[in-house]
Amino acid sequence: MFQSSLYSGDRTKDYELTIKQLEALIKDEPDHIANLSNASALLNQFLTDINWVGFYIWKENELVLGPFQGLPACVRIGFGKGVCGTAVKERKTQRVADVLAFPGHIACDSASRSEIVIPIIKDGQVFGVLDIDSPNENRFDETDQTYLERFVNVLERYL
Question: How far is Cα 69 from Cα 118, in angstroms, rounded to an integer?
Fold first, then answer.
């Protein structure tokens, strides 16, 4: 049974704990939707100053909305479009300090000001992306990127 933890305030230790919690939640569950749902809920509970966290899954040459926490979102995002589509095209994390300055940004929630998107690669193919938005400009830093990429690496092992 999952229990919410009190985080210590040490971001590194708290990210480590969250990654361990993710693995415990998904290691025995083969269903991708269930695992992505729990992963988005876990991040929503752990991260502060965010207004959306979830997944887009790569299907038929576009990203399709998957499990998430937050307001209703864009359902489909094309290859190379917006921050999510760019993460797929470049196959690398996109950390955007000010989404209003990102060419072609797709504004699903007008309150979002910064965003981080990590591609999920399984067996050399794009599976989808983890997308996290914040109403604060420059919310995500190198520590967030490092540990969120590790979080995605755990997910990749169980998809």
Answer: 16
Amino acid letter, 108: C
DSSP for 112-154 reads --EEEEEEEEETTEEEEEEEEEESSTT---HHHHHHHHHHHHH
CA distances from 106 to 25, 29, 131, 144 (A): 32, 33, 12, 22
Compute the distance between CA of residue 101 and CA of residue 111 in angstroms, rounded to an integer: 14
Count of Cβ atoms closer than 10 Å to residue 118 Cβ? 23
Report pLDDT digits (tens) over 95-126. 999 999 998 888 787 889 999 999 999 999 99
pLDDT in tens, 41-65: 999 999 999 999 999 999 999 999 9
Task: State the Cα–Cα distance between residues 142 and 131, nearest whole angstrom.
Answer: 16
Structure tokens at 43: 């991040």
